[in-house]
Amino acid sequence: MKKMLLPLALVGVMPAVQAADVQVYGYIHVALELLDDGNDYSELNMASRASNLGFRANRDLGNYTLLAQLEQGVDMDTGTAFTVRRNTFVGLRGDFGMVRVGHFDTPFKAARGPANLFPNQLGDIRSITRVPGSAAANGQLDERTSNTLAYQTPRFGDLQFDIAYSMNQGSRVEDGEDSSVVSFAANYRTDSWHIAGAYEAWGEDAGGGEREGLRLAASYQLNADMRLMGFYQNVSHDVDDAYTSDTLGGGAVYRLNQSTDVRGTLFYRAGELDDSDSMMLVVGVNHALAQGLYTYANLGITNNDDSAALTPWRVPTTANPPGSAGDTATGLSAGLVYRF
């Protein structure tokens, strides 16, 4: 009898399973990197850069589509799984736009996209905009927030808006605390332009303390082979002026052929305190091998004032030796990226 009930139960579940479109996806990114802090450290490392595994589900509900995603980091260098909490949410999409709840990138974080020519690679823009801090003072704003409710509007011509509100970063809101995060972005897209502007503010009880940021990123397709970009960011931190700064930069991508392009960026970070400025120069070449598969080689150089110790390799990577204050950090990277 029990043997007969199991197939019947599976038959009952099948319509619900078939009604949802479930996708398994992944991002594998490994690199060999020669890293030199300009002082004592100079070593060859293997790095896993934002590698992840995830599941997406979409279910048609007539006028709406149910969205769900579960995503976790995987360290390809050590074989360790579920190392980083990544974009994980459930939501609804329809003519009204899209609503999501969960743990995912803020609109401010996503707004760097038009200007980030080395995403997840050595030379990622976050290596100069997402400055690390101590537990008492954290200059980082490029974050995923927990307990987040987000709304994305439909497109109004070439404009679209995103707003997100995070109640807190722990399992619950403590009595009387302000650990909320508010993040807003506007995106303007045409065939030639992508311009993103964003604002974000963290409450005084949020991890790292009260802080806020403004960001503007733009890219322009000059012609069939060349794309230009520009970037500006202001971060203000109430706990420690060491993390208050302005960052300005630009870059370009030039396509050599259908498979290969060269690219370069130059960013300057002006810190609030004396002798805390940094400049990051990155040049590289990307070569596509097949759909979703490409290799690259990058050279990144970060020059630091006496009180700054940034590197071009810091974000996001499993091989992250610290920089040396007042020295020039140099990194040479050869990587492989595979999306499935």
Structural account:
By secondary structure, the chain is mainly β. It has a single domain (24-339), classed as Porin (Beta Barrel), CATH 2.40.160. It has 3 helices and 18 strands. The protein is globular, with a radius of gyration of 22 Å.
Rough shape?
A: globular
* N- to C-terminal distance: 43 Å
CATH class: Mainly Beta
Number of strands: 18
Helix content: under 10%
**Structural class determined from secondary elements:** mainly beta
Domains counted in the coordinates: how many? 1
Low-confidence segments, given as residue ranges, are: 1-17
Radius of gyration: 22 Å
CATH architecture: Beta Barrel
Mean pLDDT: 92
Q: How is the main sheet built?
A: 16 strands, antiparallel, barrel
Order of helices and strands: HEEEEEEEHHEEEEEEEEEEE
Task: Record the SSE blueprint.
Layout: H1 2-19, E1 20-36, E2 42-48, E3 52-60, E4 65-75, E5 80-85, E6 88-94, E7 97-105, H2 107-110, H3 126-129, E8 144-152, E9 159-166, E10 181-189, E11 193-202, E12 211-221, E13 226-237, E14 245-255, E15 260-271, E16 278-290, E17 293-304, E18 328-339
Antiparallel strand pairs: 1-2, 1-3, 1-18, 3-4, 4-5, 4-6, 6-7, 7-8, 8-9, 9-10, 10-11, 11-12, 12-13, 13-14, 14-15, 15-16, 16-17, 17-18
